[in-house]
Amino acid sequence: MWFLLRGVTWPYFRKHWVITLLTLAGVTLGVGVYIAIELSSASLRVSLRRTVDRIAGKAQVEVTAGEAGVPEDTLDRVRAVDGVAAAQPVIEAIVRPEGPNESSLMVLGVDFLGDRSIRDWDFEDQDVLDDPLVFLALPDSICLTKEFAARKGLELDGTIRLETGHGWKPFTVRGLIEAKGPATAFGGNVALMDLYAAQFVFARGRLFDRVDVVFDGKIPIEEGSKRLLAALGPGYHADTPARRGAEMEVLIENFGRTLALGSWQAMFISVFLIFNVFAVAAARRRREIGILRSLGVARGTVLRLFLVEGAIVGAVGAALGVVAGLVLARVTTRFIAGLTEMAYGLTHSESTVVVAPRVLVTGIALGVVSAVLAAFFPALSAARLLPVEALAKGRFQRDFEGTSRLRLVLGLAVALIAALVAATLARESFEGSVLGMLLINGAALLLVPSLIGPMVRLLRPVLQRVFGAEGRIATDTLLQAPRRTSATVLALMVSIGFVLTLGGLTHSFRRSYTTWMEGVMNADFYVTASDRFFAKAYHLPPEFADILAGIPGVRWVEPFRGLHLEYRGKRPILATLPLERTFKRLQMPLVSGTREDLTEHVAKGEGIAVSDNFARIFSLERGDPVTLDTPSGPLTIPVRAIVQDYSSDQGTIWMDRSVYLRYWKDTGVDTIDILLKPGASREDVAKEVRARLSGKTDRLFVMTASEMKANIRTLLNQFFALSYIQLVIALFVAVLGITNTLVISVAERRRELGILKALGAERRQVATLVVLEALGIAIVGSLLGTALGSYLIKYAAETISATNTGWVLPYAFPFGLGAALAPLVVVVTVLAALYPARVALAVSPAEALEFE
Amino acid sequence: MIAVEDAVKIYEGKRQVRALDGVSLRVAAGEMVAVMGPSGSGKSTLLHLLGGLDQATSGSVRVDGVELTGLADDALTRVRRDKIGFIFQFFNLLPTLSAFDNVALPMRLQHRPAAETRPAADKFLQLVGLSQRGDHLPDELSGGECQRVAIARALVMAPRVLLADEPTGNLDTKTGGEILELLRRINREIGSTLVMVTHDHGAAAACDRVLRLQDGRLAA
Questions:
Q1: Burial, B20: exposed, middle or buried (Cβ in 10 Å; 0-12, 13-18, 19+)?
Q2: What is the pTM of this model?
């Protein structure tokens, strides 16, 4: 085998080094994208876990009551539980220090007198803890890790400005912590403050974020947790730090899998490229195979030779993919970190890539297995060749074309399975819906080749009319080599289909979201403490609502409080407002229920309204009860209406503020919506808002609806950047596919090109031929891709979107993208044809004609 | 019509091969000349130089008054297109084109109008006796018929010189005889200058003159 690889395989691949490189690039891209996304996801999970573990210190259990926080009196109730050795309250805020490109800082508000019972803070040569009262007496005191302080060039008594709930505030460094234990969490970007100072600075009111608990040695954790929950009552959680970390990890994992679609698509197409290359190799090496077979080389050896070649291509491509993946992971990790922070409020210390061997091994295995699978059928054809056939002079092509009938039968079978999956599994899980999409692509790949010939024939008179003999010869060449033509047309079809599907989904979501936003964002002003609707660190005091209501020209105000809830493994948004007024102005399409349900029952606290995706994710219907954990115990409340709502991919619950205040005991406000009286001057009111709140807060954003919408659109665009990255990958793969096929085509047609040159075809004509061939492929591939994409948009909007986010999106073909894609594909195709055209020009007619 | 002066062709590689070593010859207009010689004697190389498919390393190759040595690729292409017709041992028809389209191909490459192309292709198909087979693909034709199509294609641009590389080498004796007869007739009727490389003594005997190559040199 080694002899054959060295003597037969290596010279072939060396001779066709461009094709070899392009094939490797396909595998590299697929494996690289897979590894980058998986590593990013794994790295962020590890980063979260480390932070949670290290900050937890000795804490065995963390007592929480949802995002709103734990009331102060809970602390005494926890401490009173039998078996609790220590209980310490914590405020945890991620803030941005002043300066460009500063990484976030995790500020912990702790009780300096008692926190060492949970966390081992190491203050060296400082007298902070010897006289903590000095520290506490000065509310601007902060401790930084030595590492962070050194990075910022700060020393003791230096000043650092942080963005707080009351705007940018200066803090004085009054302690430096050694980078040990909890101080190594969040990449060492940790700061300590006094608990009550933090409570004020981060507008927590009379709440803590959690209480960390250590039991005495005799009590098992499960038993301790049970006792805590029994003592505190419903609405509280007593989870181990690991469990809290695991819940957050699931969110990142879910996010990563959407991105993973891009890598699967790249892999899918690279398999295709490998198949194409090996099919051509089997045809071109026909004589070699014949000679080997006539010299006694067994069929099995020929089969193994091709499979080993596939494995080598896969392994080398995958090895390069590992390198590419590691580089790419640095970018994707930052990207996913930013998006998960925006979507779910998960903050990450750094975007360091953790190299997980499992991911690398899986990536390599994926590359090798895909390549071997792709090489299998060409290998089988080569092995089945009879020596006498292989040695016969003449045409190579036709003996290797698979029987179209078998392909059709297979295609129909796959289409049938796809239909079954689409009707069952695809509606139940994300994985099922992706499987359905792959099967639809598979069925198209098997069935569509029968259409390519007729389509090229239709194209022939057009190209002949426009480009003369070159047009005709180019289309004839495409017809002459159906396998080669099909491979590229199909690769292009799948790429364009994928691009259009993503584009369609994005377009549909953007359109739905915009329509929804226009109906919902119809207040005149929004006053917030953050540039978002709600942020954990920054709240407005409730009295602001009353102050603003008193401004002349203001018709009414609506205080909004939003938070992420923990509900059946997801993190839906709880949106609370005085709904009696809100529902009168919001134009949210009702999916189930009546307007009266909203304005009468939900607004009076007799039920909740939920978003359509919430209802779908949790299989709820109108009238079903929902039980929410609240600091006052479980709240079971019926769903009175289902509305179309695009606030969160985890679902949204609309609840009247009165119910929220009663159960959550949280008076904080994130946004105050202001509605003006008819004829009131917007400028005057805006001026008055600022004047009345002046001096009361340093963190104030007063935005009009259109400013708020623009703000949200910017955030939305960051999400869509995901889709655009995938679009670029898909296009890149398509370019690889076309270039690969054209190079193969030119290599296969040296003799033909030689004849044309001998007959007097000019250089320009030869180059035109190659470009026209590419154009023909581009036209047919684009038409088929558009057809496939048109269907997949519908499929994806109804299944992939529904299983991933709960939203069934309306069908929307991205005409803009389609219009942009058409010239782009032509340009890309012509560019892809440049190298093969150069190769074609270099063909010497004398040499080409000698070849037989 | 053809004048070769001290033509040398050296192929560079791991080992330098002197394929032609100072060949000089003249072929008059309308003459039919056979080139014979053992394998590796330089027959095909000579034909390639005469046809502008390749260039001499040194020396002079003139066809119809045009010096081919040192000519740029595009200019060589024009010489091939306008002055030379090729007939190959393995026909070299484009398999996707019908017999008619193969014959019409050189004219189409020059974007000649259909009004000119069609009658010319019909005329030469008729000349080679295949006027009824114009719609057939090469696959559907016999070897002899394919070679006739190749001859018609070589003639369609009315070249001053016809170069044939073993035109009967891939045919049985009877068909080969028919093709030779056809070539002789064309030479007589159209007056094309014909240079034919062949191993076949019968074919050579049909020519006006026989040139013998040995180790890249013309034998006396």
A1: buried
A2: 0.71
